[in-house]
Amino acid sequence: MRLVSSTKRLIQQLRDTGWDKLFAKVCSFCEARNIDVLEMNARYVARRGRARKQQENYTIEQYYRVDLFYAAIDSQLQELNNRFSEQAVELLIHSTGLEPREGYEAFNIDDICKLVNKFYPHDFTDHEKLQLKMQLQHYEYNVGQHSEFRSLSNLSSLCQWLVKTRRSTIYPLVHRIIVLVLTLPVSTATIEKLFSAMHSVKTRLRNKIEDDFLTNSLIIYIEREIAEKLNIDSIIDDFRYLKERRVLF
């Protein structure tokens, strides 16, 4: 995430100060190879359909700088901002403090408290926020120094290990933070996959399918690898014992 932040800053810096250097390199390249360079201060004659640029003061230099150079960089910045907003970057940076790493260098109690106060204020009461800092201090000493903890690779394995060793009951607030962070969508892949699956499930012949049934069908379709492992007989038995029925099922 810090790399994303620095990339966005460098791209913005390129937009602000990079045109003159780029243009100088292009001129040098053309001169070394006897390529004619356009008169950049000449009037730019727009193609058909671009009448708004048929202005006396709109130059070729403005066209290349604004319509091409700035436009290309702005599209990159917009894409990065859409996928990695400032709020999302800050959220993920603070979340890295929970990652199980060798030596636990990333663990920072203040960052984790900021994570809770800023992004999960409604998931913790004021009293729990006060207790959290104390739990984190014990967690850092008791869990961070454990040999099995150092062998964990990610938050998911950490969450499972806390439950397995029953430390989730000793540090319930820390465990709650980890669970909340694990629910974060780190990309749009799931959403794109959902829209793709919708075209397969809700066809022209099924255009009147209800929302609940559509949702259930999409879950089964998307998670079909898990659904294939389900035992149909056990599902039938569970359905049969849900309530008393007039006719034996």
From TrEMBL:
Entry-linked Pfam families:
Dimer_Tnp_hAT
Tell me, what is one Gene Ontology molecular-function annotation carried by this entry? protein dimerization activity
InterPro entries reported for this sequence: AtLOH3-like, HATC_C_dom, RNaseH-like_sf
Q: Which domain of life is it from?
A: Eukaryota
**Span of domain HAT C-terminal dimerisation:** 155-225
Q: What is this protein called?
A: HAT C-terminal dimerisation domain-containing protein
Q: Which organism is it from?
A: Dipteronia dyeriana
